[in-house]
């Protein structure tokens, strides 16, 4: 029987290299935009298939980067990521029953960055670094999807009122509610992966440098 977790890990590592976090949300955002533009009678298609693929990947990457930046800003406003970081940092330090680690900086965010740098220097921490990078990728994916689903709500609204498409009110409300729920779930998952990453960095540093 194949080891599915190993397959997922291999794919995740490959996606880290290929900026999977941007491609996922970017592909979805780009797809929604092109779908909406199609109803506005704007069709973008290049007859040369390889060029079309290259342009599509490039545009998906740009859309993904934009989605991640905006999604991260939305999460910062509604979830107060600075406060969330400090709470997670303090809880992890308290759980270790140690308020002082071997750090040369006192500011918590600088200390966190310092831990990252030191862990990257540690060859024994390679597997932990891979795991923490995977957490960052998943956090970025969900932060990008926050904006992607908001774009989908905007496109649906445009179809209903901007183009006067015959979308029944019941369907419109249900789809909007589902998309709004996905926005909230994406934000929740992004926060979860961010917290895991913060805990893992501190615990790994404590494990190797205490």
Distance between the termini: 40 Å
| Strand proportion | under 5%
Number of helices: 7
Major sheet, described briefly? Answer: none
In the predicted model, the low-confidence regions spanning at least 5 consecutive residues are: none
Q: What spatial form do the alpha-carbon principal axes imply?
A: elongated
Count every beta strand, where a strand is a DSSP E run of 2 or more residues: 0
Count of structural domains: 1
Order of helices and strands: HHHHHHH
Q: Assign the structural class, choosing from mainly alpha, mainly beta, alpha/beta, alpha+beta, or little secondary structure.
A: mainly alpha
Q: What can you see in these coordinates?
A:
With about 210 residues, this protein is mainly alpha-helical. It has 7 helices and no strands. The longest helix is centred in the last third of the chain and has 41 residues, at about 170-210. It is elongated. The two termini are about 40 Å apart.
List keywords for this structure.
210 residues; mainly alpha
Quick description:
Helix content is 82%, strand content 0%.
Question: Could you give the topology of this structure?
Answer:
Blueprint lengths: L3 H14 L2 H20 L9 H31 L1 H15 L12 H14 L4 H37 L6 H41 L1
Helix pairs in contact: 1-6, 2-3, 2-6, 3-4, 3-6, 4-7, 5-7, 6-7
């Amino acid at each position: 029987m194949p080891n599915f977790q190993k397959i997922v890990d291999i794919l995740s590592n490959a996606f880290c290299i290929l900026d999977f976090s941007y491609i996922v949300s970017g592909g979805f955002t780009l797809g929604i935009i092109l779908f909406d533009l199609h109803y506005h009678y704007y069709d973008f298609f290049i007859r040369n298939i390889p060029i079309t693929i290259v342009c599509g990947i490039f545009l998906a990457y740009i859309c993904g980067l934009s989605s991640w930046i905006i999604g991260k800003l939305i999460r910062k406003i509604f979830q107060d990521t600075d406060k969330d970081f400090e709470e997670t940092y303090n809880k992890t330090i308290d759980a270790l029953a140690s308020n002082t680690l071997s750090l040369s900086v006192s500011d918590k965010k600088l200390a966190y960055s310092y831990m990252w740098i030191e862990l990257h220097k540690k060859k024994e921490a390679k597997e932990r670094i891979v795991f923490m990078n995977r957490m960052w990728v998943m956090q970025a994916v969900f932060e990008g999807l926050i904006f992607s689903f908001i774009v989908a709500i905007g496109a649906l609204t445009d179809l209903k009122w901007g183009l006067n498409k015959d979308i029944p009110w019941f369907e419109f409300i249900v789809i909007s509610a589902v998309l709004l729920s996905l926005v909230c779930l994406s934000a929740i998952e992004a926060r979860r992966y961010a917290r895991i990453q913060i805990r893992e960095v501190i615990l790994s540093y404590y494990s190797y440098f205490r």
